[in-house]
Design goal:
The protein is α/β, with parallel strands linked by helices and about 240 residues long. The chain is about 35% helix and about 20% strand. The longest helix has 13 residues. This is Pimeloyl-ACP methyl ester carboxylesterase.
Length: about 240
């Protein structure tokens, strides 16, 4: 049995992992998810939401030896947590996630993509501190391979995304880079182009990059298959 902590990406919350947690629990793991500050049921005001606050929340939720998975934008959050508490992390798993690069923010990486599936999809809110995603675009880029019921479930729960954590640079050192790391590259991803995921992991050992036949939200579209893959990663 492994202790598994699941971290959500932009505009999501712990709710998105309900099905995956059920599957992982069925395989004998202690699987759980948290709401990052300012997301889901967490009421942290947006001016207080930073990449550091993300890292602190994750570190507070770690067990003695935890497999830490981050989806999409959470690639930065799990790396920031690993820089602080590497001794409590058994493995980092990047699920179609942005992999931090020295001196670059998550927004820098998104702008560096040759293709921009989210062009025109983000709406900055009046507070100037957060953005939302147009629902019709979210259905297409996040959930195109999900059932209609799954799309309705997710779209009803999407929330604003604080901008500050995505405009911050994460320190990258041996503390996080020497940990066992795995990348799950989603072949049909309509949010982070698969070719950009391949570019971010071009210098990773091939055995640490796992191609998965799904779009950007496999925890909804294919929770059993995703759980089976995570189970294999937890065994290594």
């Amino acid at each position: 049995m492994s202790d598994i902590l699941l971290i959500h990406g932009s505009c999501h919350g712990a709710w998105c992992y309900e099905g995956l947690i059920t599957e992982l629990t069925g395989l004998g793991h202690n699987a759980r998810a948290i709401d990052l500050p300012g997301a889901g049921q967490d009421t942290t005001p947006y001016p207080a939401v930073t990449l550091d606050s993300y890292a602190e929340a994750i570190c507070d939720a770690l067990g003695p030896r935890t497999l830490l998975l981050g989806h999409s934008a959470a690639g930065f959050a799990i790396t920031a947590a690993a820089e602080r508490r590497p001794e409590r992390i058994a493995r980092l798993v990047y699920l179609c996630a942005y992999v931090p690069a020295p001196g670059r923010t998550m927004l820098d990486l998104r702008r560096a993509q040759a293709r921009q599936p989210l062009s025109g999809a983000l709406v900055k809110r009046d507070d100037g501190l957060s953005y939302t995603l147009r629902p019709e675009v979210a259905a297409r880029v996040f959930y195109q391979d999900c059932s209609e019921e799954q799309r309705r479930f997710a779209l009803a729960r999407l929330g604003p995304q604080p901008i500050a954590p995505q405009s911050a640079v994460v320190r990258v050192s041996d503390a996080s880079q020497s940990l066992p790391r795995s990348y799950i590259l989603c072949r049909d991803d309509q949010t982070i182009p698969p070719e950009f995921q391949a570019q971010m992991t071009a210098d990773w050992p091939r055995e640490d990059v796992h191609v998965f036949d799904a779009g950007h939200s496999p925890f909804l579209a294919a929770p059993a298959a995703l759980a089976a893959l995570i189970d294999r990663l937890a065994e290594t």
